[in-house]
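Fill in residues.
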């Protein structure tokens, strides 16, 4: 080995030894977390149950994405809109804004329709779901028997309506102040509130609500979803509708 090569060899070995004896410096990787959603008058309601509460009917990952990402995006968009339109958005009840969309300026009307509709629909959706939800009884069951032909026919007709909804949308049960029920569907994030009605309950038939588990089998999802309904909450909403206090 030449003198030059030996010098390079011993120099490199000394460098390796020094590196081995020196405390290692670890550089933290830049965070890839999503930026914090803008704060404002609109808030995603926390789930009153764990995300895995409905397995195997709805998996935890779907619940996480649906609640945190999809509903979260609607709320983030709304809070951005509210910053520049505080008089039109955020100062009035959600149901009042949705029931009077034509009063909004044209530049925000479409965005409010989609995002505030999505916020209202999902707020209702999380509320009327819950593990160990029991069965309908009392006034709610009486109304189902009277207006919807009994529980079996109601579920069949509700699922059929949800299955027929083309593309994305929702299937709802609306309720009048005198307690009368009806099944209705709406596209996208529209809601019967936009027509001056009130929603007793409803199911989301956007693909993001079921695709991880059910792929294109919407009918299977609709049938399984009944295992997630909290009938006590539905009864509370029914009583509020009759009292004239039901919001979204």
């Amino acid at each position: 080995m030449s003198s030059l090569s030996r010098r390079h060899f011993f120099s490199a070995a000394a460098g390796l030894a020094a590196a081995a004896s020196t405390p290692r410096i670890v550089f933290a990787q830049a965070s890839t977390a999503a930026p914090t959603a803008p704060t404002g008058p609109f808030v995603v309601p926390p789930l009153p149950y764990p995300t895995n509460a409905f397995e195997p009917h709805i998996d935890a990952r779907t619940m996480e994405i649906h609640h945190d990402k999809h509903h979260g995006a609607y709320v983030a968009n709304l809070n951005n809109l509210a910053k520049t339109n505080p008089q039109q958005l955020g100062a009035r009840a959600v149901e009042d804004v949705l029931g009077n969309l034509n009063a909004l300026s044209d530049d925000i009307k479409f965005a409010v329709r989609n995002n505030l509709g999505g916020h209202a629909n999902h707020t209702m959706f999380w509320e009327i779901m819950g593990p160990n939800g029991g069965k309908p009884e009392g006034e709610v069951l009486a109304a189902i028997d009277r207006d919807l032909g009994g529980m079996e026919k109601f579920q069949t007709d509700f699922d059929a309506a949800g299955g027929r909804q083309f593309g994305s949308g929702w299937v709802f049960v609306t309720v009048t102040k005198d307690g009368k029920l009806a099944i209705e569907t709406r596209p996208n994030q529209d809601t019967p509130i936009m027509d001056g009605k009130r929603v007793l309950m409803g199911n989301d038939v956007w693909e993001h609500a079921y695709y991880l588990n059910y792929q294109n089998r919407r009918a299977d999802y609709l049938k399984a979803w009944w295992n997630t309904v909290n009938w006590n909450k539905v009864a509370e909403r029914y009583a509020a509708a009759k009292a004239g206090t039901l919001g979204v």
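The two ends are 84 Å apart (CA to CA).
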